[in-house]
Design brief:
CATH architecture: 4-Layer Sandwich
Radius of gyration: 18 Å
CATH topology: Deoxyribonuclease I, Chain A
CATH superfamily: Endonuclease/exonuclease/phosphatase
Strand order of the largest sheet: 5-6-4-1-18-17
Strand content: 25-35%
Order of helices and strands: EEEHEHEEEEEEEHEHEEEEEHE
Helix content: 10-25%
Number of strands: 18
């Protein structure tokens, strides 16, 4: 590949589906680096859509858009990809099949359902999952109501090589859409508060944990949501929200066409243990020429140096492998 261009109220049932594979499916070489990405694949679901000028009550994501998603994932060539806005298990399988046809193979998958019956979190991984702590049912107090995190939190530990583990949390917080029954902003901030407590628990138990929290946070850099999750920078249980950009220095990750607004709402956050292992030249916002064919979001990507020769913190667009 060439250079990347500028390029509610009742507790839900939840579903966690790990894909079982033979050990021989995993890479046998010890990797000197690992790449982790997050990508909101923009309604890879069945929903009302306007197709050919006519409104259809139920239609899947158009084939061209599905193929563009698959091309994007294959081009990123990450070892683990957290996905947001994935539909049914069958639609997730469709995505996996297209990614494989596009040239990227992921022997391990995870799929998580929360309260939202339509949009789900998922994971593609080339490395084995050695621990699973995902939470599909996350009850939250919002005023006088008990609500639930719409998508929950995907929480797995990957082991790229013996002795080197990365705990990966994938999230998709409440969107900035008005709802009649409750305060959406308050719910998103409640999700952030729960996530901060979860991060604190992980890092209190193991301060040396290589922790990555990534996904669509549906809020901006200076928001209470982001500051609430990262915590106090002076404390050992804090996270760093990486200021990733594309190769033009632009940081936006989502284009809201209806409002004509570009925003940074997708993030990668890392624990202090991981900061010195970030590769500065191979992390950033992936801006492919065909990005709008796939999604209204662009993927965010980090590369970790596992060889013991760390490089400075990443801020710019990653180069391909």
């Amino acid at each position: 590949m060439g250079r990347w261009l500028n390029a509610g109220l009742l507790a839900p049932l939840f579903l966690l589906i790990p894909q079982l594979v033979a050990e021989s499916s995993f890479p046998t070489a010890v990797p000197s680096e690992i790449r982790i990405a997050s990508f909101n694949v923009s309604n890879y679901i069945t929903m009302p859509r306007r197709i050919g000028g006519r409104l259809r009550a139920q239609a899947g994501k158009p084939l061209a858009e599905r193929d563009a998603v698959a091309r994007s994932i294959a081009a990123i060539n990450a070892d683990a990809v957290c996905l947001e806005e994935v539909g049914t298990p069958a639609e997730f399988q469709d995505l996996c099949d297209r990614v494989r046809k596009a040239g990227a193979d992921y022997p391990v998958t995870e799929y998580l359902s929360g309260e939202d019956p339509t949009r789900h979190l998922a994971l593609l991984s080339r490395f084995p999952v050695v621990e699973r702590h995902s939470a599909g049912d996350v009850p939250l107090r919002v005023g006088s109501l008990t609500l639930h995190s719409p998508r929950g939190v995907l929480d797995v530990t990957l082991e790229p090589r013996p002795g080197y583990r990365v705990r990966l949390l994938g999230v998709h917080l409440k969107a900035k859409l008005e709802v009649p029954d409750y305060d959406g902003t308050a719910l998103r901030e409640a999700e952030a508060g729960w996530l901060r407590g979860h991060v604190r628990e992980i890092l209190t138990r193991d301060p040396e944990s290589r922790l990555v929290v990534t996904g669509d946070f549906n809020d901006t850099w200076n928001s209470r949501t982001i500051r609430g999750i990262t915590g106090d920078p002076g404390k050992p249980d804090s996270l760093k929200a990486l200021p990733l950009t594309d190769d033009r220095g632009e940081c936006w990750t989502e284009f809201w066409e209806g409002a004509g607004v570009y925003s940074r709402i997708d993030y990668v956050m890392v624990s202090k243990k991981l900061e010195p292992e970030l590769d500065s030249a191979r992390s950033g916002v992936a801006r492919f020429p065909f990005w709008r064919e796939a999604s209204d979001h662009c993927p965010v990507v980090i590369t970790l140096n596992t060889s013991g020769n760390p490089t400075p913190c990443a801020t710019t667009s990653p180069s391909p492998r």
